[in-house]
Write a structure and sequence with these properties.
Elements (H helix, E strand, L loop, with lengths): L7 H24 L6 H26 L9 H19 L1 E3 L2 E3 L1 H18 L3 H30 L11
Antiparallel strand pairs: 1-2
Helix pairs in contact: 1-2, 1-4, 1-5, 2-3, 2-4, 3-4, 4-5
């Protein structure tokens, strides 16, 4: 009878990838002084990976046993997504008439997706998600701040310059 447990090295690699990519996403938020940074993103990615791996273990352990004991692995992912959505929503606040923290909330959501991808062993997907998220947050964030916001301000108000 085969073991339903993942080999130690597989678990180590999956958790390391999730944690590492969570670190990269969190570092960008940390450097910008956002409320959820390094540790939050790392823990979300790591936790999502762990929950998926535990779910896979249960699924494979029950596959040879009683069919009524089987679980639906999509329910595990749904639970992870719901929990992460709750954390992300906690980052979004309304202050002084404007909504803040939406990008941080979205980055926590992506950290969860990176964790899920790592947990199922799809490390290429985890890497692509992280790369696209970092490009979106950092590069497009800079573009949005420097180019688009400058267009909306009156000429004399740009970066404290006078006409």
């Amino acid at each position: 009878m085969e073991s339903s447990e993942l080999p130690f090295m597989d678990m180590l690699i999956r958790l390391s990838v999730a944690t590492g990519f969570g670190f990269l996403l969190g570092l960008e938020r940390e450097l910008r002084g956002k409320p959820a940074g390094l540790r939050s993103h790392m823990l979300v990615a790591m936790g999502a990976a762990a929950f998926v791996m535990v779910g896979m273990h249960i699924l494979f352990a029950t596959a040879t046993g009683d069919p009524s004991a089987r679980i639906d692995p999509t329910r595990i992912v749904e639970g992870v997504i719901g929990g992460i959505g709750f954390l992300g929503a906690g980052c979004i606040i309304q202050a002084r008439g404007s909504v803040q923290g939406i990008t941080t909330g979205a980055s926590i959501w992506i950290a969860g997706a990176v964790g899920v991808a790592s947990g199922i062993g799809n490390l290429s997907l985890a890497a692509l998600l992280s790369a696209f998220a970092l490009i979106t947050i950092a590069v497009l964030g800079h573009f949005e701040k420097e180019v688009l916001n400058d267009r909306e301000e009156p000429t004399g108000a740009r970066r404290g310059r006078s006409q």
